[in-house]
Amino acid sequence: MTKYLPIETEHGTLKGRDAIFLDEYSSKDNGDLTLKGEISCSLASNKPKGKWCPYTLVFHRVLAVKITELDTFEFLQSQSGWIESSFCEVIDSNWKSSLIGSTSKVNDEHSVFIIQTYDLVFELVCESYSLEYGLPRG
Description:
Elements: E1 3-6, E2 20-27, E3 33-40, E4 52-60, E5 64-69, H1 70-80, E6 87-91, H2 94-99, E7 111-116, E8 120-126, E9 128-133
Antiparallel strand pairs: 1-6, 2-3, 3-4, 4-9, 5-8, 6-7, 7-8
């Protein structure tokens, strides 16, 4: 059964439609996918001081990615069960299981993550991620 495990960041878990704003995303030839933007400090469980906190989130060695508009993603989730956190790891992912095989590089050591930003939702199969925050402002 698929489970959604909230990611605990240095500012706690991020929850809410407006928790994560995305300014830009880019990919590199090495498979890294980088997201940059700001989190709403009031929607982080540890409530850092300030209104906004910049972030850079890099998913390393991405082998598969889906990008879905937020309202469409929420509609699809309403049919299969809600995800409570804006950034989570997917345990026992059906999608990952479907990718494992003789013609895919995906294996059991890869992880699946979902990050819901204000406009877009990214679902990724990758080796790991790194998250850095800047100083809160506002």
